[in-house]
Amino acid sequence: MGSFFKLANASVPRKSFLIGSCVIVGVATCLTLRYYWKRRSRKYYKSVEETCAVGGKRILVLGLDDAGKSSLLLHLSRPDATSTQPPPTEGFNVVCINSENGSSLNFWELGGSETVRPYWPNFLQDTSVLVYMVNSADDQRLRSSAHEFRRILQDERLKNVPILVLANKQDLPGAKSVEDISTTLGLDELKQLNFNVHILPLQMPSDSSCRSTVAEAKHKILQLSRGCSPILSL
């Protein structure tokens, strides 16, 4: 019996050691990933600055995965694009759209998966307009989308940034209306807190008759990025 208690007592430090080791490995992994994302974002900032026009407006595009962010950038940069679905963005993607007079909008699209969302705050600096996309037909994750939206708006760097919510996939069965999306995201409350927030319906074009919603979104983004100044067409 005495040997049994000695063995049991000896196993306690071993278990504590194993648990402690797992915690240390987990923390080290998280810190390494965070460091990697910061280094990667800084490196990409420099690359984009060399590629895009100097002084371009920075448009940050956020939303859960499957909200349609990549599709929006595809149709903004290629108005004649068909309904081909681009692959999901695993990390981040940058598309520079230049106007005829040389000015540019630099769209930064971040992946919306659970593993990427914690890194959204690393990309908030120097944002001219925040575009937040919602899958109107994904009723099960609508509240999760609203939670992520309100969470990111707690960052002081977005306090004075114009916000455009795009209620995407309005053409799908069961899609929530713009009014329902606005209520779930609490846009009226945000307006009372002096957020410059707007919302538009959106659906990706399957033929020429559907392109008006993308054009309206582009027009609104230009308007918000330029304040009250005249709007220039892309």
From TrEMBL:
Residues that, per the record, bind Mg(2+): S70, T89
Molecular function in Gene Ontology: GTP binding; GTPase activity; metal ion binding
Membrane-spanning intervals of the chain: 17-37
Sequence positions that bind GTP: G63, L64, D65, D66, A67, G68, K69, S70, G112, N168, K169, Q170, D171
Keywords, comma-separated and alphabetical: GTP-binding, Magnesium, Membrane, Metal-binding, Nucleotide-binding, Transmembrane, Transmembrane helix
InterPro entries (alphabetical): Arf-like_GTPase, P-loop_NTPase, Small_GTP-bd, Small_GTPase_ARF/SAR
Protein's UniProt name: Putative gtp-binding adp-ribosylation factor arf1
Upper taxonomic lineage: Eukaryota, Metazoa, Ecdysozoa, Arthropoda, Chelicerata
